[in-house]
Description:
By secondary structure, the chain is mainly alpha-helical. It has six helices and no strands. The chain has helices at residues 2-12, 18-41, 47-69, 78-103, 108-139, 141-145. Helix 3 runs parallel beside helix 5 (108-139). The longest helix is centred in the C-terminal third of the chain and has 32 residues, at 108-139. It starts with a helix and ends with a helix.
Amino acid sequence: YTDHLDGKIARRDGLITNFGKLMDPLADKILVMSAYICFVKLDMASTVCVIIIMVREFAVTSIRLVAVEQGKVIPANNWGKAKTISQMVSIILILLFSSLPYFMTVSDQVISALSITGDITVYIATLFTLISGIIYAKDSAYIFKDM
C-alpha cells in the first residue's frame, strides 16, 4: 500500500525522477528476494524455485538498465503483473501459514496441508516468473540488435 501511495504522491506532485524509476522496482525486487532467501534458509521454499526467481529478476533489471541507457522504455505487461502478484501472494501466505501455530492450536495435518499450499504458491510464482521472463526477453530483444 505504501509503495502505491508513494507513486501516487510522486506523480501528483511532479516528483518523478530517473533515480526513482530505477530504484522503486529495484527495492521491490530486493524485498521479494530477501523474503524468498529467508524462506529457503528456513526450509519453507524450494532453493531451485528461488534461484529461478532471482536469475529472472537480475536479468530483467539488467535489460532495463541497458534500455534506459539507450533511452528506451520496455512497458510492463500482464505476465509481469501476474508474476508480481503471485510472488506477493506466496510470500504473504507462507508468512501467514508459518505463524498460525503461534496464535492457535493447529493439528499436524493442518500444518502439513498449509505447508503444501505454501509450496504450491511458490511453484505458481516460479511458473509466472519464468513465463514473464521469457516474454520480457523476447519483447526486449530489439534493444540488443543495435549494439
